[in-house]
Amino acid sequence: MAPSTILNSLSEPLPRYPADGLDALPDIQPSGSSTKETNPPKFWVMGRDWAASGVNAITASRRRLVAAGLETEFIYKKETAIKLLTEGDVTRAAALYLLHPVNQALSALNPDISCLSEHHGNTIRSDVTYKFGLDRAFAIVEFKKRGVIRMEEFRGALLELNNDRARAQAQINDKIMSAMDERGMSFFRKNSLNLLKQAANYAVKHGTNYVAMFDWNYLILITFNFDTSPPVEDREINGAGDYCSIRVIEENSPGMRKALFAFLCAAAGLITH
Question: Which of 244, 258, 223 is nearest to 42 (CA)?
């Protein structure tokens, strides 16, 4: 099968790779002292439908994407040599099939955007940091070994909100109070707990509300809601907030690339949240 254009690939699923050769689903631990000391969110609520936002963003910016040549530039053909056994394997494959088409689309809208790998900032190092030039970070993408993201652990920390705003706020207040009786004052457990501690740490240290995590099985788009303007010392005191919004996109979904595209566009202020 001929490879797709970059523009068409934004609405197509990633290549499928079997999970053959994987060990038992891996457990993770906080990777550094600052992550260990970070307070995770207590729970999460359903976030924005980023895939739907991606459709709107692509439609609204189609003329600029075409002008940038994304209708004639092709995505990489599936590399059959790839085996997703380690975090490094996921990182390499994601660079080809997830980040590259999304970055080409982002650059068409704002050529000053930088995508930096293993970038250090405020004592931490993130897999991918998105910045305006070399200035302010606006989003983080973190890669994990396949199987690290376990959706059953996330489901136990989900608060399903009432459609009525007042009732929803009452639910949130009650959930915050009930979390005080939970171990670690959070409903997240095991890997999900450590992932959210890491995400919150990155958000606070880099001063961004947008953190994505990807293990090939799932793309998790996390939106925090805290004031990013104070200096990092004050952000560390205040933390990333009591709860966050999350949207999950599964491996075989045609919405993965366009969801990440919309997520990063919102983080960069290219579309309204």
Answer: 244
Confidence of residue 242 (pLDDT cuts 50, 70, 90): very high
DSSP 183: G
Which strand (E) or helix (H) includes residue 154?
helix 151-155
Q: What's the whole-model pTM score?
A: 0.94
Dihedral, 169, 208, 114, 32 alpha carbons, nearest 10:
-120
Q: By the 8 A CB rule, do 54 and 7 touch?
A: no
Per-residue exposure over 212-249, b if at least 16 CB sit within 10 Å of its own CB, e if not? bbbbbbbbbbbbbebebeeeeeebbeebbbbbbbbbbb
- Tell me the backbone φ, ψ of residue 76, rounded to 5 degrees: -65, 140
- Which tokens is 187 given? 């409903």
Whose tokens are 């990013």? That residue is 228
How many alpha carbons lie under 13 Å from residue 42 in its C-beta half-sphere?
A: 16
Q: Hey, how many other C-beta atoms are within 10 angstroms of the C-beta on 88?
A: 11
Query: Which positions ≥6 away from 49 have C-beta within 8 Å?
Result: 247
Residues in the chain: 273
pLDDT in tens, 151-181: 999 999 999 999 999 999 999 999 999 999 9
Express each pLDDT in 175-187 by its tens digit: 999 999 988 899 9
Report how far residue 44's alpha carbon sits from residue 166's, in angstroms, rounded to the nearest whole number: 18
Among 77-91, 202-216, 221-235, name the one with the lowest average pLDDT.
221-235
DSSP 5-55: BHHHHTTSPPPP---TT--SPPP----SHHHHHSPPPSEEEE---HHHHHH
